[in-house]
Amino acid sequence: MSFLSRVMVLKSRAHFSAGARGVNLSQRGASFEGVRKRRSGQTRTRVGIIIGGFAIMYCVIGGKLIYYGTMQPEATSSIMPADRLMASRPDLLDRNGEVLATDIRTVSLFAEPHKIVDPDEVIEKLRTVLPDIDSRQIYNKLSSKSRFQWLRRQLTPKQQSQILALGIPGIGFRPEKRRFYPGGPTAAHIVGYVNIDNRGVSGMERYVDSQGLADLAAVGMTSSQPLEPVRLSIDIRVQAILREVLMSNITKFRAKGAGGVVLDARTGEVLAMASAPDFDPNDPAGGSEDGWLNRMSNGTFEMGSTFKSFTLAMALDSGKASMNDMFDARYPIRIGGYTIKDFHGQSRMLSVPEIFQYSSNIGTAKMADLVGIDGHKAFLTKLGLLTKMQTELPEVAQPSQPREWKKINSITISFGHGVATTPLQTAVAGAALVNGGHLIEPTFLPRTRAQADEVATTVIRPQTSDNMRYLFRWNGVNGSGRNALVDGFSVGGKTGTADKVVNGRYNHDHNFNAFLAAFPINNPQYVVLTFIDDPRSETDHAVLAGNSAAPMVKEIIRRSAAILGVKPRFGEDGAATLVSY
To answer: How far is 451 from 468, CA to CA, in rounded Å?
Structure first.
């Protein structure tokens, strides 16, 4: 039997056997059909699961893309977040709303060294736009393994467009803000300046940071939105006049420096303050180092005979001297191997007004001796002349004084030698002598009369203040202050010509000249102080304060009184009018 035949036989036997056991053929077909349906349902379920999985996966990916597209960029390497780079500083305004400092938009150039193919080629192209770049430094940056390097900060729009036209791969621009000072150096030492990262370095710019702006920037909470401007107390018109007078007199007298302040005697507001030489805050590094020092608040000097104002006020306020007293100024005072004598000696008995008029060292020393060493030191401390001045400006120097006060120290300090103070605090103490006896710390922010009264401290009696106004006016008419008089404005004051220390000794040929003035002296509204450091005459001799510092005050008052709202008055009672034909 062949193999095929055997297969057929076995197959027929299998069918017969199944039929013999009673199996229904129609039921067998139904069972096969159920298996097929069950397997088809499982397949559709598996396909649905796969499709659902892919749908969920694409939803997650899409959600992540939306999240990454809307989130803020993170800081990497030395790159700060964009909102911090573009963070605004508040504008600084003068008391009339004129802009002193503001932000302008700019861009900075950076490189991604890992994308740079040929650093030499990049440098060669950049030099066509930025010829002053340091090739070695730029090469090191472009060859570094970092992913970010600053190449040049704060480009001009023209420079940006020229570099874009070069088509250099691997470099880009980042938006930033740059501080701009429309007035240039006019109020440099008051306004201050910022560094390359727009952070305050000096002046009121630094003060603004100290009030919380720097802390907010450190934690990334600053904003690119404009901030409320900060209004200062200064009047930029008066400030410009003051600076112009200082600069012209430095040239005229070939002086090393000069300074001045216009102070509201009733509120302590600084209307103008300048120190020369100065600098341009738009380019702080472009000036000389001498220009960075704010001599008015951060420089200390022996103020010379202007200190006699405080000595006379001390003696009069103590009750141990009166305006009618006479003091013997006939003979020099010899003490501790030193001889104290008068520059304009009268060799006679002098009244208190005459001591002030002739600037008598002898008479002033004897008035200080009435009060005593301890009383003298306490009075100057009460006037704020021996302690660090409190004000918004960060640059404030600590006055210097003898470690131990002896009688010789009290005598020399009575006429302005032996204690070095800042010119600004000298003006503040001078304001207390003429405003009724109220010491008001200076401010570079607007302050009302009511606010000033809250912070004022009474340091002398009103009667003493009346006497000091009389002495200031007396000296203005009859003494060294004559060169500061301005027609229509009653000016009074006191000069100070202090010998400078050269090689450890006082040198009569080198002076520090100052003039402390107030106007209108019958009811002082403003105090003006000027100084000039080491002025020289045409013959190279020293110049006295009456011929240098006093005329500076005259020019400042003449040009700024009307701006300050002080009306001229003519005649003894002020009733006369000025008529022009």
So the answer is: 25
- Give pLDDT, residue 206: 95
What's the rounded mean pLDDT across residues 24-50? Answer: 66
Four-point Cα dihedral 519, 522, 525, 531, nearest 10: 30
The upper half-sphere exposure of residue 392, i.e. CA atoms within 13 Å in the direction of its Cβ, equals 25
CA 172, CA 113: separation in Å to the nearest integer?
11
Contact (Cβ atoms closer than 8 angstroms) between residue 154 and residue 178: yes
Q: Are residues 127 and 253 in the same domain?
A: no
From residue 315, alpha-carbon distances to 169, 242, 318, 372, 460 in Å are: 79, 34, 5, 10, 11
- Whether residues 196 and 264 share a domain: the answer is no
- Shared domain check, 259 and 225: no
Non-local (6+) Cβ contacts of 186 within 8 A are 236, 239, 240, 243
Check if the beta carbon of residue 456 is closer than 8 Å to that of residue 440: yes
Full domain range(s) for residue 289:
239-560
Q: Say which residue the tokens 């008035």 belong to.
A: 367
Determine the residue type at 107: V
528 within 8 A of 506, measured Cβ to Cβ = no
- Look up the pTM and report it: 0.79
Closest to 321 measured CA to CA, from 348, 356, 346, 347: 356
Catalytic site residues? 305
The residue from 231, 251, 286 where one domain ends is 231
**Residues whose CB is less than 8 angstroms from the CB of residue 55 and which lie 6 or more positions away in sequence, other chains included:** none
Q: Which of 242, 243, 249, 248 minimizes the C-alpha distance to 280?
A: 243
Residue 152's DSSP bridge partners are 109
pLDDT digit string (tens) for 333-345?
998 888 999 988 8
Angle, CA of 475, 476 and 480, to the nearest 5°: 65
DSSP 231-255: EPS--HHHHHHHHHHHHHHHHHHT-
Same domain assignment for residues 175 and 278:
no
CB atoms within 10 A of CB 122: 21
